[in-house]
Amino acid sequence: MPQSLSKIYVHFVFSTKYRKPLIENSLRNDLYSYIVGTLSALHSYTVGVGAHSDHIHLLCTLPRTITAAELISKVKSSSSKWMKNKGVVDFSWQNGYAAFSVSSSKLETVKNYILNQDEHHRKKTFQEEYRRFLDEYGMEYDELYVWD
Question: What are the chain's domains?
Fold first, then answer.
């Protein structure tokens, strides 16, 4: 019997709209659980989730049946509604996102990075972090369209 098998790990990064600091510490663990549940329903295994006040990182598998854009669209729309239901007025995610491939040999390194967001952002802003990732992966971008 033929099978189609896939295990592709992706590190997604996206911010709140206009990088507003709307992700409160008190909601983070529940937000993570909600997103993990959403990813699971989409047949994506979550390795790690971490956020700072204005952005989030997800490390998960890409299901073989949907695109990265579809996956993130579903995660962003459902979690945005969830945040609004929790009383976060005018919550929304930015329109865009970044997606970086991660080899299985680097999973623990990336996971540890994701889980220590507050520590990283004592030293650098989200914009500095984001630019570093884009540069590290050799991604071309236009500053006019990266920040919404």
Answer: 9-146 (3.30.70.1290)
